[in-house]
Amino acid sequence: MSLCIQILALANAITHRDYRSTSRVQVRIFDDRIEFWNPGRLPEGWTVETLKKKHESKPFNPLFAKAFFWIKYIEEVGTGTNKI
């Protein structure tokens, strides 16, 4: 996994985190993969299949999304999961 994709995955986990939860974003490193996890949920009516195709961005934290876009950690909204 390239560094750019790792940054995108971490930015995605932070942007879509539910900050009402006391759980933290987690990064787990294994020999064959890196897993990013956050205490969040999919938007109403979405499934994992929704994430596999181009989709509208519905960030849990739009201000984080804007900040990551401005500093170029996010190139285009709604495309991160396809790149990851």
TrEMBL record:
Any Pfam family hit: HATPase_c_4
Family annotation (Gene3D superfamilies): 3.30.565.60
InterPro entries given in the database record: RecG_C_sf (IPR038475)
Protein name in the entry: Uncharacterized protein
Organism: marine sediment metagenome
